[in-house]
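name: query_chain
kind: protein
chains: 1
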Amino acid sequence: MSFGDPNNPYGAPQGQQPGYGNQPPQGQPGYGYPQGQQPGYGYPSAPPVQQPYGGGAPTTMPGTVSAARVMLWVIVGLQVIGTVLFAFSAVAVDQAKDDPAFEELADYPTGALWGIAVLALVWGVWATFLAAKFKSGGNGLRVTALVFGILTAVVAVYPFTVFGIIHLVLGILIAVFVGNSNGAAWFKRPRY
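structure:
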């Protein structure tokens, strides 16, 4: 049924035959309609559709968050390379102490090289943990990844080598991508 159907009891009032006297005066609306509104056709509109359970949270990882995850895996690769290089350097310096041709190299402390190798390994393990948990992690992981990105950028400023520049850029991008609204929406989404 529509408002145009003369048998619709909820429809607009039909025009009366002239001479019956119950016709509203000209300029006033018919009964049931407030001033300024025109009668519509069909049934009234439905109430707004509710969001699905979860409030519209993202179901797939946003592109920026996925990019931050890839950057963490790149840092893992760089840390593995750094760990191997520093460990190899520590062994080479330790072996060079017996050779008189490498006296300058033999004065370099091997303990510092081993310490840097261990630090690079720990940093790589931390990046591996963060990258592996991006799919299921909550807001605590987001904050940890944000701190990781900032610390990576700060630590990368000192050596400022090629690897330092790469770490600086990657650290800044990780912090920005995890800290933006897409990152917040992904890590604060409800988990069922």
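note: DSSP finds six helices and no strands in the chain.
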